[in-house]
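Minutes, project check-in

Agenda point 3 was the complex the collaborators sent over. CS summarized: two entities, 444 residues total, and the question is how they sit relative to each other. Sequences were read into the notes so everyone works from the same version.
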Amino acid sequence: MKQDIRMVVNNREVEVLIDPSLTLLDTLRDELGLTGARRGCETSFCGNCTVLLDGKAIHSCCVLGIQARGKHVTTIEGLALDGTLHPVQEAFVQENAFQCGYCTPAMILSVKALLDESPSPSDPETRDALEGVLCRCGTYPRILAVVNKLSQK
Amino acid sequence: MAGFDYVEPHSIQGVIETLDKYGEDAKVLGGGQSLLVMLRNRLVSPSCLVSLEYVSELAGIESKDNGNLVLGAMTTHRAIEKDERILERYQVLAQASSKAGPLHIRNRGTVGGSLCHNELGSDEAPSLLALDALAFVEGPGGTRTVPLEEFFLGIFTSVIEPSEVLTHLEIPELSPLAGSFYYKHTVRTVDRALVGVAAVVILDQTTGKCQEARLGLGGINPVPFRAHQAEEMLQGQEMEHDILEEAGRLAIEEAEPMSDAFASASYRTQVTPVIVRRALQGALERARAVK
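CS then shared the predicted structure for the full assembly.
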């Protein structure tokens, strides 16, 4: 039976009527039109579905939409402000830290979550934050450069 | 995934009542990092999911007056690995939780879920075994306690009955003289442990010999276990390389390694003694560093 769920998505309150079995990924993409979170494996391994839930990076394929009730969800669409790129997005552009772009929203969000929690992360911390997103194009070194660039000394 | 009823109780009693009502057709939902994948793959199809999210008694880490540590079943791996008390006194557990999957998974996955799911190679189980953890299980008949050594029955099977729920774990106070270390051996870091060894070592402060050693092993047998023979041998010994190697040999002797898609029993047999030695070495170094 569908349930009425209210959550805050990219700083806006939204309301959706969804079946409990609908994942957060499907809720964002199909109910809210936010397709920045990608379908990959849909079984917790690839990380392309990454969004931030109350500021923490999670795999939205392994969270039910209903579990996001009352919480804050941040998708890639929520980073730019009035057309101005978020500093993390800007750094990705400057470092050319993407190739096909499929994992890029997930990577950008994971970097944002990392820097929000740890403004000056160590190399192991950074690698740990990126481990949950698989990039087949091999952009990791450039993403490490992004974190280095943004890291506050 | 197939549809299901979704219930969000606000008390343990509410959880038990719902589980009792649905019988074997209901599953509890903790972090969902294992269950939702199984639902996705249609490996299970419960008619009801009982979310534990709003049951506040299941959350949190507490220090009791007697020095014991209480871990709520809904505590995430991430919360455990960052907890100051656990980082300071129960390093083996902090290490294990930090290796229980990528960060994205650790932000949601819970220690209770990991234990009840009992997938081969789970990281926290060996550490909690080495820390002599006690599991608290609540059901229609009341609460029962289960020493963690008796908690696991087989892969994906624990002593939890359909209408029961694991509420929390209690970890006895660990001597401040103890050094502990978790060594996870995998081929890819994102995998479960092929061999995971948790070691706790307490040294006699005068002689420097081993006063007590505990070894929790996972990923080898269908259930995580304590290597009691190795532990007994280590007591009173000088902790030199040969002795640590002997402990490794004894540990694999009491093991019953299994084969699966990730590694053969033969591989596990060869690798386990090495990992045991390394875990003991790590714990020993920490024990020696204690002032």
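Noted in discussion: Chain A touches chain B at residues 1, 3, 19-21, 23, 42-45, 47, 50, 53, 56-59, 61-64, 66-67, 110, 128-129, 131-133 (CB under 8 Å).
Follow-up: revisit at the next meeting once the mutant set is ready.
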